Amino acid sequence: MFKRTFIGSVVCLLLFVAHANAQGICPLGGVSSSKLVCVIPQTFGPWGLGAGQGAPLLFNGHQGHFESDFLSTFGPINEAVGIQVSQLPIASPSSGITFNYDASLKTFTPSTEESLGPIIGESARTIGRRKLYVAFSFQYFDFQSIDGQQLNKLPAIFQHQPVTLNPSEHITPCRNQTGLTGVFANQPCFVRDYIQTANNIDLRVHQYTVYVTYGLTRHLDVSAVIPFLTVSIGNSSSATIVPNSVAPASVFPGGVFHQFNPNVPGCASVNPCLNAKFADSASASGIGDVTFRAKYEVFQGERWGVAAGVDVRVPTGDETNFLGSGATGAKPFGVVSYQGPISPHAEFGYEFNGKSILAGDFVASPTTKGSLPNRFVYTVGADAAVNKHLTAAIDLYGQRLFDVPQLFYSPYTDLGKCSDIACTTLTPGTVHANLGVRNGIDYSIVNLSFGLKYRLVHGLVVTANVLAKLDNNGLRSPAVPLIGASYTF
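RE: above sequence
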């Protein structure tokens, strides 16, 4: 069975969204959309590098059928982008300041002898009854790879699809059927043509996050994490039509079946035009998905503590602009930690996710939703007091995603090049770089977090941290800087 090609690999990104009136967010019918999820389909769709009436590949009455299941194959990649961009790692919403009771002052005072707590990790200690913790952090994500493939050089081949024979349109079986097997048996010579593309995705996110934690009781904290995002995406594709067949020059200028229309930029004075570049970009800003947390310290020893809690993510962000996931998520978790000059800690949780248009079908009418993958999330590390003002923290932050798509290198061998119209001599096909996708994969994403906390005065703490990738799975930024400030009242 013909193997669907994964165009644009970058394809690897985004798509799939829905509209309230049951039409696709990305109409692909001649009217462009400013939504970020539409950047890729508008680059590769009917008025970009695609097919359909009036498309750039429609020339001289011969329409190129290079789409394959092009738009539908974007879904798995869009799902990965949707869940990873809208659920970026954040700093812990727990205060690093601990309070000791001062009998002489008859009040609680912040400790100056212990660590200031983790940055990405979590402590079992609660903030204390009627205590208030507020914080702000900024993180910058410059995504450069997905599943080990560099986003600035994603290779993708558009293979011609089988067609219905029609002698009146010069659609007759190729005289030389060498290499034309399976679905290409008895097909015309021009199905040997293909489009070779080099694709570049530029995806960046600025994340500003506000944290608020309040101690309802001595052992129970409630928190809200409110992210604000600025997301920008640009996509460009340099495309070359490779004419492995020969067309009658009296009907097709230049003796090629497939070429770009003269209205494609750069093609006005080129005949035949076999090279073109298509691009689109957009940006958006707004609130992301808000997360609410409740954490209860179930055991409190002199140094050791155990806590349990749950995070509930609310789809407040606009998923069509990659500001949110478009789905509710719930993550029960447990924490074990030790409080002291050196404080080890570990957190484990499992996140259940609902359905989102990011994992659905944005082409169908009505559009459909799909389930975002569940994931197991863990953080293991330690923080250590360098002195009474300075704490160093290191964490291993990982997640295991279940039933997700993954890109892989899938080289394409073309069907050979004809010497003339009759394909008297056929040069064997050669191998070209191309990407494919595996569905239903479980894989891990692991990062190393290391940073510093500095107490300026009493409850005011400033933070600097870097999150570095340790593997190539998923959508990744090599290093993610974080700066922040917090105050405990």
